[in-house]
Design a protein that fits this description.
Strand 10, helix 7 and strand 11 form a beta-alpha-beta unit. A seven-stranded mixed beta sheet has the order 1-14-7-6-5-3-4, sandwiched between helices. A six-stranded mixed beta sheet has the order 9-8-10-11-12-15, sandwiched between helices. The chain has a two-stranded antiparallel sheet with strand order 2-13. It has 15 helices and 15 strands. By secondary structure, the protein is α/β, with parallel strands linked by helices. Helix 4 packs across helix 5.
């Protein structure tokens, strides 16, 4: 956890006893990020203390603090991504800890501590994961800008910068507010963009919701995931990722830890220490939770095509002459003879002969328990597209 700005602590004369403290949790029950923050708060409560918790399970815009005259609360943990919530909490005068996207309505001059996740760290993890898959083409897909989603632009810029540092370009979806009024317009805009991208490509989606949008568009446009398009989201919303087809890979933000640390800090503040200066606490991502949508190992098809053409156009003696002597295992004649006999299995264009894939499947069904008796559709598992494109 990284801390921005130092703070002084001094005792408060109105410290509340640990047991029986009344706490309000103000968060968006419809957002995976907020729910995971609350999971961290719950973990702290169960491990260390007993609080009476006030919760409203609704969207953030509909949240309200309980009446301070009758509730007599001791502390608040709240998402500050909505101006109404931020105003209510700041006016309450109670010890409070805020969290959010790093934007929204948190004032840096406030004495309320603020927690948010490290978007640069998230984007670096995304770039590393997709690069490790051997991909050469990359893209980012986000949302139109608004007052509280600066995190989206921050992730885009950090992803772009990380790729540039490693010598890669990055395509960016041109998200426009007017074009995203209905799912039909979103689908049309995304599909057109996807169809025009180079392939295979790895796409970093701003969050899991956007990642699922991309998977739906790929299915509608007959684009194969992950063979042609690999998709990686953020939030690791287990329900959303599990409902996606194929299963969506995602980055775990560290929201649970954020919630735990926020609750721990609030407990300290209610115990008699309060901050005279605002602090911003940045929580790093946990890492990538890999699923089917990025389950690919891409290779340079053009390089493979060149190697196949070289094998087809050169004799075994010529090929052996280019190899280190240790490859011969001490018997050059045997190596050349074996290579000559094996050349027939390498086609010059990298494409199996007619009937080849079916023959391989028949052999595998006889030899591999995991394949025996399983329905396998070769039209969905075998393609010559990349070999044809590399000619």
């Amino acid at each position: 956890m990284k801390r921005h700005k130092s703070s002084d602590r001094q005792p408060s004369s109105s410290a509340a006893p640990s047991r029986g403290r009344r706490i309000a949790l103000i968060y968006d029950a419809t957002a995976a990020y907020d729910v995971k923050v609350m999971m961290g708060v719950a973990e702290y409560i169960h491990k260390t203390t007993k609080w009476n918790v006030y919760i409203e399970e609704s969207a953030l815009r509909d949240q309200h603090l309980p009446s301070l005259r009758t509730w007599k609360g001791h502390g608040i943990i709240a998402n500050f991504d909505h101006p109404g919530v931020a105003r209510q909490v700041m006016r309450s005068g109670l010890p409070a800890v805020a969290f959010g996207s790093g934007y929204g309505w948190y004032s840096t001059s406030s004495d309320i501590p603020y927690f948010y996740t490290n978007n640069a760290n998230i984007s670096q993890a995304a770039a590393q994961h997709l690069i490790d898959k051997g991909l050469q083409h990359f893209a980012f897909c986000g949302y139109p800008a608004n007052p509280i989603n600066g995190w989206c632009l921050e992730r885009q810029q950090a992803f772009y910068a990380e790729l540039s540092k490693r010598g890669f370009a990055c395509h960016v979806f041109p998200a426009k507010q007017a074009a995203e009024q209905t799912w039909a317009t979103v689908l049309s805009a995304l599909s057109t963009w996807l169809l025009n991208l180079p392939k295979p490509i790895g796409i970093f989606a701003a969050n899991d919701i956007r990642g699922r949008h991309l998977l739906e568009c790929c299915r509608e446009s007959d684009l194969r995931v992950p063979d042609q398009i690999s998709v990686l989201g953020v939030d690791n919303d287990e329900l959303l990722c599990g409902l996606s087809s194929p299963l969506l890979s995602s980055i775990e933000q560290g929201a649970v830890r954020l919630g735990y640390e926020a609750a721990k800090l609030l407990d300290t503040m209610m115990g008699g220490l309060h901050r005279t200066e605002g602090n911003r606490f940045v929580i790093d991502a946990v890492g990538v939770v890999a699923r089917t949508s990025t389950d690919i190992l891409a290779i340079d098809d053009e390089a493979v095509a060149k190697a196949l053409r070289y094998i087809a156009s050169h004799g075994a003696q010529e090929i052996a002459a280019q190899l280190p002597p240790e490859y011969m295992a001490g018997d050059r004649a045997l190596y050349v003879s074996t290579l000559q006999q094996s050349k027939a299995m390498f086609t010059a264009d990298g494409v199996m002969p007619a009937g080849g894939p079916a023959n391989v499947l028949r052999v595998m069904r006889l030899a591999e328990r995991g394949v025996t008796g399983k329905p396998i559709d070769l039209s969905r598992t075998y393609t010559t597209e990349f070999a044809q494109a590399a000619r």
